[in-house]
Amino acid sequence: MKLNVDQEKCIGCGACVAIAPENFDFDEEGLSKVISDEVTEKTKSAEEACPVYAILIDAESNVKQFPGDKSTDRQDKKNDDYTDEDILKEAA
Predict the structure, then answer these.
(1) What does the alpha-carbon distance between residue 14 and residue 24 come to, in Å, rounded to a whole number?
(2) If you compute the radius of gyration of the chain from its CA atoms, what whole number of angstroms results?
(3) Contact 15, 86 (CB under 8 A)
(4) Rounded distance between C-alpha atoms, residue 91 and residue 48, angstroms
(5) Long-range contacts for 26-35 (Cβ within 8 Å, ≥24 apart)?
(6) What is the predicted pLDDT for the residue at 39?
(7) What are the two backbone dihedrals, phi and then psi, of residue 26, each rounded to the nearest 5 degrees?
(8) What are the backbone dihedrals phi and psi of residue 66, each rounded to the nearest 5 degrees, phi first?
């Protein structure tokens, strides 16, 4: 599996770094960067916690698009005024 952060979407909130520090760290601009491609449950929680849907977990033959389309449950929750704090609590 390959792990990516869309630098154009990332706002540097630090949710992924807090949840999966073995996978993510901050770059010199304060945005998230991948430091390990090893996908764990924490990595998946970090992907789900990203408030701007900037994290992509890419399987070899099953490419997953960046989340955020209107059909995802998480997007519906974001539309119902979920705060970043709510998302972090949910991911913990």
Answers:
(1) 9
(2) 12
(3) no
(4) 7
(5) 31/5, 31/7, 32/5, 33/5, 34/3, 34/4, 34/5
(6) 94
(7) -90, 145
(8) -55, 135
Both structure tokens of 32: 């998230």
pLDDT, one tens digit per residue, over 7-66 is 999 999 999 999 999 999 999 999 999 999 999 999 999 999 999 999 999 865 344 445
Measured distance CA(49)–CA(92) in Å, rounded: 9
Instruction: Find all residues with CB under 8 Å of 88, minimum gap 6, and list them.
Output: 15, 18, 19, 49
Token readout for 92 is 């913990």
Residue 38 β-bridge partners: none
Q: What is the DSSP letter of 69?
A: S
